Amino acid sequence: GLIARLADIFTQNGANIVRRDSQKLPESEGGRCVTRFSVWLPADRAALCLAAVANTAGSLGLSSEAEELAG
User: Do 21 and 48 touch, CB atoms closer than 8 A?
Assistant: First the structure.
């Protein structure tokens, strides 16, 4: 499934999953299932890792968004 594929991508890119959260949004907000990951990525692998995540989501008909947090 999706989580196993993403975990594999993160492992291959030396990432550290800090947190994962899944929830189903109310029907008034589209009723979608949303999964969020907080992940530490090595700077030299971040772009490649995020591209792989986006490609994997897209191949499953899903969307992916990423944002960088200061810290």
Answer: no
And the tokens for 67? 């944002």
Instruction: Name the DSSP letter for residue 22.
Output: E
Q: What is the pLDDT of residues 12-34, one digit of tens each?
A: 999 999 999 999 999 998 888 99
Rg (CA), the chain: 13
| pTM for this predicted structure | 0.85
Taking the C-alpha atoms of residue 49 and residue 14, their distance in angstroms, rounded to an integer, is: 9
Residue type, 12: Q
CB 64 within 8 A of CB 35: no
Q: Given CA atoms 69, 46, 8, 58 in this order, what sign does their dihedral have? A: positive
